[in-house]
Amino acid sequence: MDRTAGKELALAPLQDWGEETEDGAVYSVSLRRQLSQRLSRGTGPAGCQAPRPAADAFVHYRTSKVRALRAARLERLVRELVSGDREQDPGFVPAFLATHRAFVSTARVLGLLLPPPPPPLPPGIEIEKTEGGGLRVNKNLRAVVSVLGSWLRDHPQDFRDPPTHPDLGSVCTFLGWAAPAGPEAQEAEKLLGDFLEEAERKQEEEQPESRTGPPGAAQTPRPDSPEGCSEEEEGPAREGPELLDFGVDEVAEQLTLMDVELFSKVRPCECLGSVWSQRDRPGATSTAPTVRATVTQFNMVIGCVLGSVLGEQGLAAPQRAQRLEKWIRIAQRCRELRNFSSLRAILSALQSNPIYRLKRSWGAVSRERLSTFRKLSQIFSDENNHLSSREMLSQEEATESPQEEDTLLGSLPSKLPPGPVPYLGTFLTDLVMLDTALPDMLEGDLINFEKRRKEWEILAHIQQLQKRCRSYCLSPRAPVLAALRDQRQLSEEQSYRVSRVIEPPAASCPSSPRIRRRISLTKRLSAKLSRERGSSPGGSPGDPSSPASSLSPGSPPSSPRSRDPPPGSPPASPGPQSPSTKLLPLSLDPPGLRPSALPLSSSHISLPGQQGSEARVIRVSIDNDHGNLYRSILLTSQDKAPSVVQRALQKHNVAQPWARDYQLFQVLPGDRELLIPDNANVFYAMSPAAPGDFVLRRKEGARPTTTVSSP
User: Fold this and answer.
1) I want to staple 351 with a disulfide (CB 3.0 to 4.6 A). Which of 24, 78, 576, 584 is the partner?
2) In terms of DSSP bridges, do strands 25-35 and 14-22 run parallel, antiparallel, or are they unpaired?
3) Which of 417, 279, 266 is closest to 339 using CA atoms?
4) How far is Cα 104 from Cα 440, in angstroms, rounded to an integer?
5) Using CA atoms, how far apart are residues 428 and 423, in angstroms rounded to an integer?
6) How confident is the model at residue 403 (pLDDT cuts 50, 70, 90)?
7) How far apart are the C-alpha atoms of 158 and 107, rounded to whole Å?
8) pTM score, two decimals?
9) Chain centroid offset of residue 110 CA
10) Where's the Ras-GEF domain (predicted)?
11) How far is CA 161 from CA 88, 144, 293, in A?
């Protein structure tokens, strides 16, 4: 339809119109408003000015209906890959390819996507071929080839299945007859060859290691013995300079180099909440290896800060203050290098209770460095859901280097500076929130693909940042990297014990810097649910944050025995964090650490669109032999115990008909538990002051359960 107006109407370019159902699939419908072609043109040079309406002319608009698949069964989703309208819904194919592992295996998708080979032709009959050498096939078959090309290019690791990689073999077989000379077939063959060559090379490397042990094992940093905190028991001193003997720029640049290499290798699909939450399952040590590598690096940086500041007990306060100042300067340099990952790690270590409580050391830190420390700490303030870091990250992505602008011609597009390197925990938190707050399935056994679109927006942001990180030009410095690897590592328990030896507990610590930090997951959840229901005018689906599935990515480190009030902090706002038990951010339970309670606010939140309904996120584990495994679920003020138990079992992939065989307990401080009666409203029966951790236990005499494997 065409619309005319005397001036441009204040209408959004895309307006929600509602939903449509077709063949069991649900589509969201929007109206797109575009300028028509009947416009006056400007008087500028030909080809240099876009069409524009004359000042006194009528403006013509064309409104068209746009449909996007919102929910459907798996078969319909796969069919949409081939038959969908790419112009109307350009995001469907990349969103499906990036998130499909959350609800279906790659082999299952290929089984539905790949058609069978054509029957052999009778002798003497030839078939017309395309310029590329492939058969003259129908439109759908060409669409399948196109989808496979995107899949191989953007997500090659989806086809890794050693030792024979059968899924990739099926793709090669299909492309061998559908498009034998096309780039897709060449890409598939090359990928299969790379996988096999990599396996052979790995096997050759493992053979000498089986006899002599892995090379470099002696250089692997190890936590000190839990019994030994004295310098005499530290073992032989390493040869060469210590980490802080190097310059600020050298250390910050090498940290950035390591973070860039690891972040560039992250597979975005491993960040999905449903994938990352599987990491604690028995036998799931190979789950999300690229994300685990960034976690290990993050914790290594924290360990370096703790070890260098606390490692030598005999230092005087001014000497230890020099080390604090050095790390603050390194953090500032990481900020200048746009490395938010190591910046967050250093700040988390400095804000940890073992370091933060050292009042005499902090008292010797200069005012200038303390001011820098406070400003940097505000970047990751939890009070506004890390809003400062999110805004700063967006600004960094849009910032252009002034030096590069001066050197480029005015007619050429300016080159963006490298980075930034983000703190990955922010994205993990966002994705776990999405996985927790939005259902996987909708009524009628339809896959909630709208949830996958929201996840894809975050994954696409990660991919965009990875491309920007490729432009870093940093060279490795072997001495600095060796010092990083060999830096003494202290466990959480040891750090706190050494800290108390350095400065015994005191009633107050007025010299430590005050940093106000509060965890507010309720704000995160409220914002996410508001966006899902369209009630939030601002913000994008990529902005939410969430609790972690098993551990909180956003929690700074603290000591499990931290009973001293953090220095210089009022009781209501205990310094950089509350004295409750927390792990290092993104911790994967290294030796000496144990799972922490998810920091949940005791306040409640209102669910948009549900008057009088409140909610909070809780974590539920099962008391069985599958390990300490938590799943986050959304608890509303309307939920009774049976429905909570049923949803928790569904999250744990346990057969739901056995929900009546379980009892729900809330975990309270002091190794106590609160039994939730079977017919009680869990929201009001639980203790609001305690963390939202629950455990399911089978009732006496109940049947043993069987875990259902995920697709």
Assistant:
1) 576
2) antiparallel
3) 417
4) 12
5) 9
6) very low
7) 10
8) 0.69
9) 27
10) 247-505
11) 35, 22, 20
